[in-house]
Amino acid sequence: MRTLVITLASASTALALYACGSDTESSSTQTDASDGAVTTQNVELAFEARVGTEPFSCTRSYANVGTMGTTVEPLTFAFYVHDVQVKTVEGTTVPLTLTQDNKWQYQTTALLDFEDKTGSCANGTVDVNTRVVGNFQSASNRLSAISFKVGVPVALNHSDSATQPSPLNLSSMYWDWQGGYKFMRLDFRAPSEAGAAVTTLLHLGSTGCTGSTGAYTCTNPNVPTVTLNGAFDPQTNKIVLDYKNLVQGIDVNANAGGAPGCMSGVIDPECTPIFQRLGLDIATGNASTNDQSAFSIQ
Amino acid sequence: MRQTVGVLSILGVAAFVACREAADSPNTPVSAIDAGAEAGPSIVKDGDYTWILPAGFPKPQVPADNPMSIAKVELGRHLFYDTRFSLNKTQSCATCHEQAHAFADTRARGLGSTGELHPRGAMSLANIGYATVFTWANDLFPNLEKQARTPIFGEDPIELGMSGQEEELLTRLRGEPRYQELFPKAFPILDDVDGEAGSEVISIDHALKALATFQRSLLSGASAFDRYQNGGDPAALSPAAVRGRELFQSERLECFHCHGGFNFADSVAHAGTAVREMFFHNTGLYNLDGAGAYPADNVGLAEVSKKPEDMGRFKAPTLRNIAVTAPYMHDGSIATLADVIDHYAAGGRTIATGPNAGDGSKSPRKSEFMKGFILSGTERDDLLAFLQSLTDETFLIDPKYGDPWVRP
Fold it and tell me: Which of A11, A180, B205, B318 sees the fewest Cβ atoms within 10 Å?
């Protein structure tokens, strides 16, 4: 676990701009309230993007990815989460109220953005965000489970991105063809010695949408619910999304059909194994019988 | 390392209220793009200036040190059309940025005041106030104020040719009676400090600020497409254009990835923007050496960054008014919109012979979205009809953007 601790430390340094303040630090120390009174508990949930066991970076490549053991390099890595809930050791589950920072968090939705425009992430943004910041009402701040949904809530998904506040106004995360957002945008490429690179673009979003701004309906919501059980210490644990796990059932050095990669198409051959790892049924876009495996607590 | 365990039923409630049951395959092309309800422009006061924002347009981003004002827009309009900005008094900004062509021109490549040909073509200034990238391939200009220096004072290539001629330019501007009035009105604070409308108020800094302010006022959002989308007029688009729009928005064609959103462009910012996005794309126009090389005078962002991976990466321009800005691409090397569509359908351009020969579709530098597609003849016509529906005819003749030096 040494590697993880070092990574967390460097991530914290990089994010020193966040004015979470001393109250966050003090409250993230795990102490049970002795009198059992419900109080406001501040918390920062750290997220980490990984490819297998390796931390995500725009300035390196990753070997042995996909069914053919391909070497890939990242283009972008970002996803929205919403409706974050925490369960404390007494067994109560409460919603996390997100700090409204006018940048990464709006209402119950947060954008996690790991690419920093360096290296192969040429069409990215310099800004990164690797944590969800908020508070919850509980007598204890000792967490025994965390859950969240990936994506943008349906009530916001079809609003006009041009007039939405940040982080819902980024053109790179808007998905014009379905009138909503890309819930998850994980784009990688496999460099080729002869000509154009093979790209695997993973764009998750609601599909089968009809309507006009503000009044769409979609047949396939494609909103994964992620539930991570187990003690979570905000000072040492983080929520990890493993790209290698997500694409381990597909060949990332060839497009088997449909969009290059998976753009949430029902009959796109790459989508079925990816959706399975997100806990989604590809046919309906609802939760599948198997749990997701791409996110974990580490 | 802990394993992820099963779904907690208490947490796993996913209420997709607005989503109906899957009735048909969502993989079939969907109409996410019906005609919208009527929504008029929004009126936003900004000091004494009034933004008339077309429906769906956010408030533009304006630098704190150069707020909008009626007087500054008017001064900027005068400067924009003033040939005193070229050393030989033959050209103004408007020479290459003609209103009738959405403030672009019809040349493949710009022609400077001394006859020098620019490597690239003049870009449309429609909605330029929303752009984060102002020219074809330079990510170093933070705003329009800074960008405006280049065409005026740049030496390679020479555009207006004023390099080292700041005093000459100021003498000319100070000699114009209209500017004696317009500059102090546009920059009244300095005027107060001085106590009189002295010559200092007519400065290069103020001229650049006024030019930027005028450019920010150039809003274009009244095309047939807008009337269809927001104007409550479903008949504004022909059935062909409606079909073309579906093609444009499809994952098959991928047009929207770079030409998406209200301005049909991706490098966009506005007052609500917190994360600045700047994008450049290699569309496989050239592949001189099999490694993706572009002609030496037009290597895209690599010219500024000197990074090999930036070879051939250019800004995706707005597609608003695209039908009146031919020829196309940074070097005007594609004559018509139909040919542009064919270029994207091929996933890159093949040039058989000559110094630029090469197969752009095999460029290792090309964008991940340049994968090519097959269009029927009808579909190509439909897509063309949609692109043509993006022309805002009123923008092209609106007198408030016209030449103030011409008396009717």
Answer: B205
Closest residue to B262, CB basis, from A162, A208, A285: A162
Highest mean pLDDT among A26-40, B17-31, B114-128: B114-128
Cα distance between residue A202 and residue B35, in whole Å: 29
Find the CB nearest A195 among B16, B281, B362.
Answer: B362
Alpha helices by DSSP H, listed for chain A, are: 2-14, 21-28, 154-157, 243-246, 271-277
Residue partners of B328: CB distance under 8 A and separation at least 6: B322, B334, B335, B336, B337, B339, B340
Look at the block and give the residue holding tokens 């330019």: B169
Q: How many CB atoms lie within 10 A of CB B352?
A: 7
Mark which residues 68-127 of A lie under 8 Å from B by CB.
75, 85, 87, 93, 102-104, 113, 120, 122-123, 125-127
Name the 3-class secondary structure at B314. strand
Asked if B11 lies within 8 A of A102 by C-beta distance, the reply is no
A123 and B281 within 8 Å at the Cβ level: the answer is yes
- Give dist(CA B280, CA A290) in Å, integer: 40
Strands A207-210 and A39-51: unpaired
Who contacts A162 (Cβ-Cβ below 8 Å, separation ≥6)? A169, B56, B57, B58, B261, B262, B270
Residues A115-132 have pLDDT tens digits of 999 999 999 899 999 999
Question: Is the pLDDT at B137 greater than 90, yes or no?
Answer: yes
Tokens representing B403?
């030449």
Q: What is the mean pLDDT of residues B294-307?
A: 95
Query: Which of B162, B166, B138 has its CA nearest to residue B151?
Result: B162
Q: How confident is the model at residue B140 (pLDDT cuts 50, 70, 90)?
A: very high
Question: B interface mutation test: which of A126, A170, A177 has the most B CBs within 10 A?
Answer: A177
Q: Is the dihedral of CA A176, A179, A185, A191 positive or negative?
A: negative
Nearest to A296 among B2, B26, B35 (CB): B2
Contacts of A147 (CB under 8 A, 6+ apart): A84, A85, A86, A87, A93, A225, A226, A227, A228, B8, B11, B12
pLDDT value, residue A160: 80
Contacts 24+ apart (CB under 8 A), A28-32: A28/A141, A28/A234, A28/A235, A29/A235, A30/A141, A30/A142, A30/A233, A30/A235, A31/A141, A32/A89, A32/A139, A32/A140, A32/A142
Q: Which of residues 168-207 of B touch A (CB under 8 A)?
A: none
- Residue in the block written with tokens 């016209």: B402
Q: CA B407 to CA B174: how far, in whole Å? A: 21
Nearest chain A residue to B228 by CA distance is: A212
What span, in angstroms and rounded, lies between the C-alpha atoms of A172 and A137?
35
- How many cross-chain Cβ pairs, A to B, lie less than 8 Å apart? 217
Confirm if A223 and A183 have CB atoms less than 8 A apart: yes
Contact residues, chain B, for A144 at CB < 8 Å: none
Q: Is the ipTM of this complex over 0.85?
A: no
Which chain A residues are closer than 8 Å to B275 by Cβ? 103, 113, 125, 127, 166-167, 170
Do B343 and B285 touch, CB atoms closer than 8 A? Answer: yes
Pick from B86, B85, B71: which is nearest to B116 by CA? B86
Q: Which chain A residue's Cα is nearest to B279?
A: A123
**Whole-number Å distance between alpha carbons of B369 and B310:** 16
Lowest mean pLDDT among A191-195, B92-96, B190-194: B190-194
- Cβ neighbours of A179 in B, within 8 Å: 32-33
How far is the C-alpha of A168 from the C-alpha of A111, rounded, in Å? 8
Any idea what DSSP says for residue B360?
G
Distance CA B136, CA B299 (A): 11
